[in-house]
Amino acid sequence: MIFFAKLHPLIVHFPVALLTSGVVFEIYGSLKKDEVVETAGRFNTRLGFGCIFPVLIVGFLGMLSLDNTEKFKDFLSGHMRFVFLTTGVFIIAMVFSRYVRNPFGRAVYFLALIAGLVCVLNTGYYGGELVHRFGVSTTQ
Ligand code: HEM
């Protein structure tokens, strides 16, 4: 449904912004040994992680309404590749943060946060190109 294709760009900013600020705050807080900043970062990372799932569902439903996808298929597949990587990497981060509470778990958690940040920014890049270069779901 075109409704979902138009809704998707409206709600994607929540996971993108929350995960980006969350990861930056967590890393900054950890390096500066500032627990308040790190805790604020953890809150944003978790809220952003929760926002991924409605955005995923709406993205899939929106994609079903697209036609003539040939000219932007590389960007659509790039977008989806990074969507799956972002989701997978943040799931790994959450699992390690919850169940592996030792220095190894913390190291994996921070590496996953950095990888997740790179992935979510790439997701946004490809999605942005779909909308602003190819005009996907901007007409009507
Ligand atoms: C972590 C989940 C996701 C994030 C963070 C995300 C992010 C974005 C962003 C930032 C845009 C550009 C919005 C704009 O510039 O106004 C976009 C557009 C788009 N995304 Fe996603 N996306 C996600 C999941 C998905 C999924 C699962 C699909 C489809 C399988 C999808 C398909 C699309 C499409 C088709 C567009 C073009 C606009 C539209 O038709 O809705 N996205 N996305």
Structure description:
With 140 residues, the chain is an all-alpha fold. Helices cover 82% and strands 0% of the residues. Helix 2 (13-31) runs antiparallel to helix 3. The chain starts with a helix and ends in an 8-residue tail after the last helix. Bound molecules: protoporphyrin IX containing FE (HEM).
Which secondary-structure class do the elements indicate? mainly alpha
Backbone CA Rg: 16 Å
- H and E order: HHHHH
Tally of helical runs: 5
Q: What small-molecule ligands were found?
A: protoporphyrin IX containing FE
Question: What fraction, in percent, of the residue positions are helical?
Answer: over 70%
Descriptors:
140 residues, mainly alpha, 5 helices, binds protoporphyrin IX containing FE
Question: Could you write a compact summary of the structure shown?
Answer:
The chain is mainly α and 140 residues long.
Give the helices and strands, then pairings.
Elements: H1 2-11, H2 13-31, H3 35-63, H4 73-99, H5 103-132
Residues 5, 8-9, 12, 15-16, 52, 55-56, 59-60, 62-63, 66, 79-80, 83, 86-87, 123-124, 127-128, 130-132, 136-137 line the site of protoporphyrin IX containing FE.
